[in-house]
Design a protein that fits this description.
Layout lengths: L1 H20 L5 H4 L11 H8 L4 H4 L5 E3 L6 E3 L4 H7 L19 H4 L6 E3 L6 E3 L5 H5 L12 E3 L10 E2 L5 E2 L1 H15 L4 E3 L15 H5 L4 H11 L8
Parallel strand pairs: 3-8
Antiparallel strand pairs: 1-2, 4-5, 6-7
């Protein structure tokens, strides 16, 4: 568990903490010997997270119409700005009803509109043979600075999914777990699946378009990502 959380701190926490939470870089990263990373000041954190101008943004809460389904959504910013932040909204002001959820200053802070993922693969992180602490204190360690070891082999000895010709794996069940970690930890306004793909072995030799479109390995992969595990940009 410690190795997995440390890995997340390095690949996500360095950017996610200050941008989405307004908090310092992960302590495990800052305490790693030789890492060229200086702790952020309170002023820098406020600027990155948007706290310094949150009250201006939230002075008036706008209503807008979602063109995709006709339902009302609240962008949490002025009507003019809502059109820029959410292309699905008309930006038209409307009165609040009892059931409307009004945004607070905290909910309006932040300098990122959503979290974007390219879920080509998923894997596991384990501690190195000499331990995380020994590695983190030695910048010459081959596993420094993350000081974890990555693998696609599960505890039962099996791969976590079908391997591609490169680095992608068909492992949508673990992609969903990663989405859950990001949602629970950083609470972004939404998660967008921006890009994904899978290249089977010797795919370049499949010169026929008909054959390429009916590959039994690729079709289930695309369906599992796009239909079962994609997360909409805007939360319901």
């Amino acid at each position: 568990m410690r190795a997995a959380l440390r890995y997340q701190d390095f690949i996500l926490g360095i950017m996610g903490n200050p941008i989405y939470l307004g908090t310092q870089y992960p302590s495990g990263v800052l305490n790693t010997a030789g890492v060229n990373l200086t702790a952020l000041t309170d002023e820098e954190l406020g600027y990155i997270n948007g706290e310094s101008h949150s009250k201006v943004q939230c002075a008036t809460v706008a209503c807008c119409e979602d063109l995709r389904g006709g339902r009302q959504c609240h962008c949490g910013v002025l009507a003019a700005a809502s059109q820029l932040r959410n292309p699905n909204c008309r930006g038209e002001s409307c009165p609040f009803e009892d059931s409307d959820r009004q945004y607070t200053d905290t909910e309006c802070t932040g300098t990122s509109d959503f979290w974007s993922f390219d879920p080509y693969t998923a894997g596991f992180a384990t501690s190195p043979p000499n331990g995380i602490d020994a590695c983190a204190s030695n910048s010459s360690d081959p596993n420094w600075p993350m000081c974890v070891m990555n693998t696609n082999v599960q505890q039962d000895g099996w791969l976590n999914g079908q391997a591609s010709y490169a680095y992608a794996y068909i492992a949508p069940q673990y992609v969903r777990q990663q989405f859950g970690y990001v949602w629970d930890t950083f609470r972004p306004s939404g998660i967008l699946v921006a890009e994904f793909g899978f290249n089977p072995f010797m795919e370049y030799a499949k010169v026929s378009l008909t054959v390429a479109r009916t590959l039994l390995v690729v079709s289930p992969y695309r369906r599992s990502i796009s239909l079962q595990h994609a997360v909409p940009l805007l939360p319901p």
